[in-house]
Predict the structure.
Amino acid sequence: MAKVVAAIVTALVGVGVAAATATVIAYVAIAAVSIIAAQKLTKAMTPDLGSAADFAQQGAQGIMVNKTGSNQSIPVIYGATRTGGIRVFAHTEGTVGDYENAHLHLVFAIGEGEMNKCSEIFFDGVSAGTCSSAGSTDPDSWSIASHWSGKVNMYFRPGTDGQSAIGDLTNKASWTDPRFRGIAYAYLRLEYDEDVWKNGLPQVTFNVEGKKVRDPGDLGTVAFSDNPAWCILDYITDNRYGKGIPDDDIDMDSFEDAGDYCDTKNFELRGNVSTNGTLHANVIDMLSSCRGYIAFGNKYKLKIDRPISTTSLAITKENTIGNIDYVLGDKSNIFNKLTAKYLDPATDYKDNIKILESSTLKTEDNGIDLEAEIPMPFVKTASVVEQILREELNQSRQSHMINLKTTVEGIDLQVGDKVTVTNDTFGMTNKEFIVMSTMIEPNSEVSLALREYDSDVYGGSIVTNARADDND
């Protein structure tokens, strides 16, 4: 039996990771420990790895390209980012000099609405037009770069359900009432000039401020925000592209608290959520932006892997039932080097790589590189990428887990609570752990999976002070 339980706990180490969610039946939590192991969980549970898998393989090439076709999925875009679009309409008409069909009308679907603004449009990576206005914008709102002056008109609609049609598109393209309700889109009217369009039709990309989202502390307020808590709340409650979870089933206080913490850490959620991906994979990807996890008891709660000051229960031999199974980390989840791939605004949203490593930890690991690569599809700021890598690296060195049962004293424990464990067999005295999953047994005993806790994980440096005994 001990071997079976140990195997179960080992499996929990593989799936209960910090930027991922692990489904456990009954009164369990959807928990997370580390972004790296989240990839294993995703592979095991769904064949579709969602945007993070696509991002890992394609990066900017999967986001900045212009796609064509009626079967392309329209993304949900959060935060400020640059993106391509889906060309859903092309039409030529008009005569200029000796050229017939000299006006080309293009419509690009950009994302689910209501988005805040489109501030800049690029042709082949070069800024072609800028707009400071939010919401609906027509040609008078755009400042066109001199090279294209007089040769292009730009329009944008943010994707409200009641948005008006663009008159010029209706009239010039002979299209009746093209409102694209609920879809943010851009309409471009290009005039042929062989000196201006030497390279043919340009690759078009857009600087946008994404979907307006609700404040979990004031659900009547809808505004642009890249706060991960606000964006995740929008995604899991939306009936059109998300899970459609009713507000009454959401612990809004937990989302508000998580959002406040995200502000202190400058965590951000900026990028495209693929509506072609699974809900499970998309939530995992989004949680990776803040090292968060979703827990479910009587309501859905958002928790961020963060320092915890309060101890919820002291676990000793008096309230422990049966054996304690202690599982150590191994080379699959302990690291001394992490690499992140992300889109960097400082390099015009091209792929960038950040590497975080420790020679001290490598020495402790007998000179072996223990490394992993992490795609970060929703983080665009280098300092935030580094912070997440540092916390993930630190946490990987605190990867011991315990599986045990408590008396009814543990019945009020929730995922994310901190407990202490004292056990003479393992030489532990008030050793701190975080609750990763909890299940109430029919006899009111409580099964717990616990992960090692150290407040130094969340600091500003890599923790390299080796401890003589990990049970200290």
User: Anything to note?
Assistant: The chain has a mean pLDDT of 85.
